[in-house]
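Support case: user asked for a sample of complex input and structure output to validate their parser. Sending the pair below.
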Amino acid sequence: MIDCRWTRRVEQWFDGESSEAAGVEQHIAECARCAAHLETLRVLRKTVAAATSRPEIREAQLPAFLDSIRERLTVETPRRGHRRFWALVSLSAAALVVAFSAFIVFGGKPARVDATVVESCTSEIQGATITTYDSEQGVTTVWITVAGDDVW
Amino acid sequence: MVKWFTLILIFTVAVAGAEEAGKLPGTAASGMVKSFVPPRSATPPINVNVVGVLATNENRGQQSIDPALAEVKPALSDLSFDTYRKLCDQTMSAPFGRDTRCTLNDKYTLIVNPISKEENGQVRLNLRVEMAPKKPTDKPVTAVSTTIVIAPGKQFKVRGLKADLGEVVAVISLQP
């Protein structure tokens, strides 16, 4: 707190409410404490004014400001990209269905398999042994052998 | 909406594919797929060629093969006899599900019974060799009965059917 009886009148003068401006100005010139207090008031006013001021777009800056807005509007939204992804997947699935159907209808018969398969072998002859083998020429063979000649 | 449509499509294809691979029983999806496939006609009879061979050891100095056996000579190459004579060479039409008989000699008769035709072109058939009974009053004995799956053009043989000095061999093949 400033210990000067002119302090209140200096503050009123600073706010433009003083009716004795000449006397206050003379006192400020002679009193170092009131001069310092006045400087403090000026700094405070400037700081408050800077903090509460809003940015202003000057007329020269307006075209660049509008271009910036337009540029941001042309950027794709994530939602649109999501839809494009599913559209692509849907198209792929549809192509898969068409290809699968074409394979079923026009694919023809499966590839031929040439290997001969022996699924079963039996004999009514008692004691007969049946073996199967493929010869070097690829001929599948069923071979029956019976111990003794009496059964034949 | 698009998402659900896509998922349903993928599911349909997957189910149809799995059913086609035999992993699932019949489904609506497979019915839809099969509706595109033309129906199969009744399977026509197959042509089966049977060559009967009498293979014997007659102590010849060199191997003797009947010239009429030229087509089945490779099928006999693993046998160790010195003489090969043709007993029969018969191509017969064999209907599916029915016995078709071919007499190899006075003792053995080959019976062919086609069972099914596979989608890959192979044929499943049952082959039986019946042996004439020693007594006329007895029933024939099935010396061998086998079920095979064979492709047209491939040869198959049954050997070991006892005969004087050797054995009877039957070489079977399907006409393409």
